[in-house]
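Check my protein:
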Amino acid sequence: MNRYLAYGLTCILAIVATAAHATTIVLPSDEQLIDKAPVIVAGTVASTLPVERNGRIWTDTVVNVTRTIKGATPRTITVSELGGVIDDRITKIFGAAEYHANENVLLFLEPSPHGGYRTMDLYVGKLTEGTMIDGRRLWMRDDAGADVSLLDTDLRPLHGKNVQREAAGFESFVAERVAGRAGNRAYGVENPALDRKTVSAMGRLQENFTLMTEGNVYRWFAFDNGGSAAWYSSGTQPGYTGGGVNETQTAMAAWTSYSSAKIRYTYAGTRSGPPGGLDASNGVNEVLFNDPLNDIAGSWNGSSGVVGLGGFTGVAFGGNWTAPFTADANHPAGTVHAYNLTEGDLTIQDNVQPSKGISSARLAEIIAHEFGHTLGIGHSADPTALMYPSVTGLGASLRADDQLAARWLYPNGNVSDPPPAVTLPAAPTSLTANAGSNYADLAWNDNANNETGESIYIAVGSGSFQKVGDVSANTTSARVNGLTSGTYRFYVVAFNTAGTSSPSNIATVTLSTTSTPLVASFTYSPSSGTAGITNFSFTDTSTGATSRTWTFGDGASATSATANHIYATAGTFTVTLSVSNGSASTTATQSVTVTNPLSANFNWSPANPTTDDTIVFSDESSSGVTSRLWSFGDGTNSTLPAPAHKYASPATYSVTLTVYRDSVPATITKPVTVAAGAPLTPSVQAGFTFAPQTISAGAPVTFTDTTSGAPTSWSWSFGDGATSSAQNPVHTFASAGTFTVSLTAANAAGSSTFSQFVTVTSLQVYRSLISVTAQTNGIGGTSWRTELTLFNAGTQGANVNLLFLPGAGGSVITRSVFLTPRQSVTYANTLLDLFGMPSGAGALAIEASSAGADAVLKVNSRTFTGGSVGTYGQSVPDVTPEELERTLYVTGMQSNVDYRTNFGLVNRGATQVSATLTLFDKNGTTVGATDVAVPPSNFQQAPLADFFPQLVGRSYDSLSMRITATASSALSAYASVIDNASQDPIYIQALPAPSGDALTIPVVGRTPGANGTFWRSDVAIFNPTNGRQTLTVTYAGAQKLLALNASSTLLLNDVLSLYGLTSGSGTLDIRWSSGTGPVVTSRTYTTATTGGTYGQSIDPVAAFAPAMTVPGLRNDGSFRTNAGFVNGGDETETFTVSLLAPSGNLIAQTLVGVDAHQLMQTSVAALFPGVPLSGNFTLAVEGDTNAKLFAYGSMVDNASGDPVFFAGR
């Protein structure tokens, strides 16, 4: 038995109120389509094949991308659309884009939730390249019946039905809109005369919206035997009383109340089970509100998009059926083969609501229209009919043509009122044709009063006729564009449902060879550029040309109307455009200036200056500098090309020159050593430094003499009554305060005194917070517990207070421990071992102090559960009060069939804190907002849907949140994203939006691992600002430019595939111009053999440090550890890597060299070969004082393979 799926398309529309009688339905304007499509590409279709995916039939179209106009894509993409034929199974979507191998396409896309991409608004998002007789290219789409608001070359509106887009002009318009500029809309071509090759492909460009005229009849045979079809609703449509149910019942009544047709639909109420959707048969007739399964691309924005899809998912061959009368030429009386409908489905797009322009009456009319499709009724040509392709605004009721279809398909008893016979329309007469430069103007008499429209036909010379296109009923003139010199013949016919009239008379016109002079010309932008960087765009603006050739002056060439070119070297290049019309040719040339990349350099004289010299600095940067800025290292600046400068005191100064070529900068810094001039009286100049700069009471301070002039004696006064005569004394201040420290240095020639203020503070108490700890059972039979490691990185013993912060109704519990210097301690079951709690969950506040110095503590924790083998867990890092700003962000959350998200809040403060939580989807649309209050010293965690009920029944693969609190340094927030199959979690800490201009993810990869694993990395990027954000994302030297709209999230699945790479690992750098940066998180994971995935979250690094510590690591029979080292500096660095036992004793030490801006990762076993390791250890890494280091440990469970990422502190 054959199985079929088929759907009818209701509204690819914008609803626009007009001043006259009715509401007009239009397709999205080109501006709307460009603005809402996150990805726009041009390319060539390589293949298109049906595939079966999870029991459903899709068509995967592989497109070789020749140009990415918006967004970021690999060179080859896959466009996946529901629908296709495999063996005897059919899935059919009316209105979906259709593809054919080797056709050139311009696509407006969005990422598909099923993988790959899908077109925006079904067929609207796909245009196919065609060519007119005069050689000009077109981007073509069937816009019949839709006002696309195009302009002609005289900037006049085009009202014809057969309007296409001149390719070069439209491509320029799209590029301008993507760049944020208005663009020139003069690219419309009305009634284009196409060449033979394009005409032969036109049949596949025309979208078929009709079910009943495709050669098959579909109907519910159950109605004939007294049976009925019960319909259920699922979900709710926001903004409507009853959530859309009232409108559904009104729509159904439009069909069931028509007594002349036997239509037995019934409404059976709401359904609580999971919906089946348009792409799967579940035996239930459903109306799915608010698109719960994301069956429809995009989201209704109140101006354009798909409102609803309806059709049938259950079809079987029903046998012979006898039509009762002749409805029209396509639906005669007599016996036909018919298919039996057994299941129907209807989906209403998300965000459809009254405030978005879809009133209750309008929604009822749309649902009634979709019910017509589920009955097997196609679109009507009558513009007043309910089944007209666009919504009429006349309400949910059947008009004459709808009643005719219902009586024909579902006759109720003897049909006594067959429709009157439809007669052919009268033929047009008196056709005339007048020649223009590259067009012909036609005029005729329209003699019909019952036509649906008229068709224009053309023949070149004595050749055969081919159709140009259709015009509206009652039209009496038209312009046919795209002609070249020659003789053309035309005729016109009228048509309606009965057929086509006889043709009009034939009108002949000849276009002169001089009507369009051949003139070569072109434009290019930008006006100049940089070798290896600037992508010049050249546009052919010639007239009368049918072919062209570009030569760019460097050996490269092209033949397209719009060409892009990057020059590899600097110079002045002559660009030549040669054009031809088949009988003559001509050329145009212009010069393009390309300069070398900007590089900064300078020198100075004299080469070894003293304080007595005036130093002349000279700018020796590469040519093309438009401005510059000098910084002399002593607080003074200059913008001159060769400034003169004199230093007041001897020292080594860092002199920086920043040069600009327009807005492009280049910078260089050099040390300039200035010696003392001739000796002064006295011969000594006292001076000193001290360390550390931050001083605590009771901590030793080292004072270092920097006096010049060879002093022989020193006299120190420390401002607290103490003195010293040593050259470099060490002094301890007993109390806090600001002290005046003076040094008097002397020799035989005299003495000098120098003083500084030294501020001494009280000893600092270390404070941090681990936002979640657990000793509890979870979903899926999991049992969670927390492992905690504390490491005293200070030079003195530390008293540590650990405070358990409970959920509602609990009490704070405090425990104290003491750690000697460099000692670490690990609690395998934290809540049980420290607090005696056999079960529970909460946060852990940590406070530490030392007697004679600031306490320095390093903390790591891991919350995990046991699996069938081994463990699965997540690292939960600590956060300091300084990181708990009033506004925090978290990204990378998911809520779908594969993943669930828990969300938690902790108030570390002494008073209640309120917060507003705002949740955004990937497009930046607000999913919901809610206010919460968190009591003091309180912890709370719940599923994300408990905070946002809007998530229930919906699927989101990318969510981000803004948390705005009423106080700072108090509220922590986090998300835990859990794989529903493997139960493996990752922890994501909410943090402030970064400042500066760069973030670095320490490691991303696409690489095989131990035990047959294969690891890949996903990166989530959220724009927290109110404006568009442009990012440069760099991996292994390759750069990608990404753009994010306000509050939107970009999920880079398998991020190395963005660079066309199949394997590798390394750092990922994310840069922006200035100001607030993006919020970023990443997950590196592998597929579990038992289903799902497991992996680790890796947060980006905003700042590097000379030294880092990673405690809480293991390398034994249960776990193995990989250590990673990132050099964020511009020079190769050598780091000292030490392994410390829990007692603080040194186990082993080695040196690791890492090149500039590189990652080095290796196993601890390979790093320290032959060193026996058991139990916990601490990894301490140190570079020189200028090093920019980030270190981490990745601890992997040997049984489960699950990794946990521990960031260095």
Summary: The CA atoms of residues 757 and 1088 lie 62 Å apart. Residues 1-26, 143-160, 202-214 have pLDDT under 50 and may be disordered. The first strand starts at residue 3 and ends at 9.
